[in-house]
Automatic annotation (TrEMBL):
HAMAP family: UPF0102
Protein name per Swiss-Prot or TrEMBL: UPF0102 protein Dac01nite_00060
Pfam families: UPF0102 (PF02021)
SUPFAM superfamilies with a match to the protein in the record: Restriction endonuclease-like
Organism: Demequina activiva
Family statement drawn from the similarity comment of this UniProt entry: Belongs to the UPF0102 family.
Gene Ontology terms for molecular function: nucleic acid binding
Length: 118
């Protein structure tokens, strides 16, 4: 695993912990199929949520949230539909969220959670 992958993996762990602290149930991490990957799939009440995690060490190259384009959101929606089709359980709702994790040189990670991105 290279340094970039390690930063991404750490960000996903931080995001997972944050979701669990909010009472969410994490159902899958790094779920893959032929068309791509979902970082986290979680349950928020009756809603299945695909959570895209973007991790940065700084905002010099732009915000982590800026890295999530409309094409990326469309792909995440398709992947979530595929994930849902494979589950024995049904959900009342489904949505895509983004969690931006910033890892400063010192101190705790900063988390920004955008719910229901379009």
């Amino acid at each position: 695993m290279n340094a970039r992958q390690a930063v991404g993996r750490h960000g996903e762990t931080v995001a997972t912990r944050a979701l669990e602290e909010q009472g969410w149930e994490v159902l899958d991490r790094n779920w893959r199929c032929a068309r791509g990957e979902l970082d986290i799939v979680a349950r928020d009440g009756e809603t299945a949520v695909a959570v895209e995690v973007k991790t940065r060490r700084s905002t010099v190259a732009g915000s982590a949230l800026e890295a999530v384009t409309t094409d990326k959101v469309a792909r995440l929606r398709r992947l979530l539909a595929t994930w849902l089709a494979q589950q024995p359980e049904t959900f009342a709702h489904a949505r895509v969220d983004v969690i931006a994790v910033t890892l400063p040189a010192a101190g705790a990670a900063r988390i920004e959670h955008l719910r229901g991105i379009e």
